[in-house]
Design brief:
Shape: globular
Number of helices: 10
Strand content: 15-25%
Low-confidence stretches: none
Number of strands: 10
Helix content: 40-55%
Radius of gyration: 19 Å
Largest sheet: 7 strands, mixed
Order of helices and strands: EHEHEHEEHEEHEHHEEHHH
Length: about 290
């Protein structure tokens, strides 16, 4: 990475209503030269009309390179990502969830880590943390503290990130490295499992993930237990569809096959884990049975 390298922020719009906050935070990034990055966002769910927000940002921040487009209706995040990547011009791609509100120095921090680690295989991972407000529920705290939501505990001050970790929420990757792995697999119908499958491909190419502690994003999403159950069912469905259509495997048999038994006495946290796993397994089994 050179001092003049262009970074492309990729934002697939999902079932959230905070895109305006995300784009506003990107428009006011600090420590980045004007025109030093672009934002590529795509909507394919049509649940909100973003036109007024996009127009305001273009008028208020004329230096912001914002490319907002809409494609044929689909819930597939993989399809959204591929669309954005085709439109992006940057040597470095920053994959950012639309409900991850970037801190003022997030883009700068991602640029810096790739200048520090120029190896093509290095990927920068930024934390996503729920806001510490009265609206943040006990269940959300459990998701975060346990690592159940993203697979690692970003709030742990002593976190050592697994070198092969990858997720699609706050991650920067060199375009050439991603291109070598190929496009995101559009067999996945939701915003689930597509980043896991891509991560497995990147691992085979030598992926080395590096934590970027200065690239903090606020996860502006009040996740209910019921919503998370639906997400886990969709994740199970996605894993099964991948197996049916490709013959490959994403997860060990023990994770896919059986719902964990209910204990005679279980804590609230144990119940969360058990029920969420049950929804994943149900989605997986039902999809396999339907063929």
């Amino acid at each position: 990475m050179t001092s003049e390298s262009l970074l492309s922020v990729i934002v697939p719009v999902q079932e959230h209503d905070c895109l305006g906050d995300t784009l506003q935070a990107l428009a006011t990034q600090q420590g980045v030269r004007p025109g030093g990055f672009e934002v590529i966002a795509v909507d394919s769910l049509y649940q909100h009309d973003w036109s007024a927000i996009v127009a305001r940002l273009h008028q208020q921040y004329p230096e912001l390179q914002l490319d907002f487009s809409q494609i044929a209706p689909t819930r597939s995040r993989a399809r959204q990502l591929n669309h954005c990547i085709r439109r992006a011009r940057g040597d470095l791609l920053l994959l950012l969830a639309d409900d991850f509100i970037p801190s003022p120095g997030l883009v700068r921090a991602h640029l810096d880590v790739h200048r520090q680690y120029p190896s093509e295989q290095v990927v920068g991972i930024g934390p996503g943390l729920f806001p510490d407000t009265e609206e943040t529920t006990e269940f959300m705290h459990w998701l975060e503290d346990s690592g159940a939501i993203f697979g690692v505990r970003f709030k742990d001050p002593e976190l050592v990130l697994p070198e092969h970790y990858f997720y699609m929420a706050n991650t920067s990757i060199k375009r050439n490295f991603l291109h070598t792995a190929g496009v995101f697999n559009e067999v996945f119908p939701y915003d689930a499992m597509d980043d896991l499958e891509m991560g497995l491909r990147l691992v085979r190419l030598g992926l080395r993930s590096v934590l970027v502690p200065g690239a903090i994003a606020t996860h502006q999403h009040l996740i209910s237990f019921q919503e998370r159950c639906l997400s886990m069912h969709r994740a199970g469905e996605s894993a099964a569809l991948y197996e049916l259509r490709t013959g490959g495997r994403l997860l060990p048999a023990g994770v896919r096959g059986k719902s964990p038994p209910r204990r005679r006495k279980e804590s609230r946290e144990q119940r969360y884990a058990r029920v969420l796993q049950r929804h994943f397994v149900n989605g997986y089994r039902q999809t396999l049975q339907a063929g």
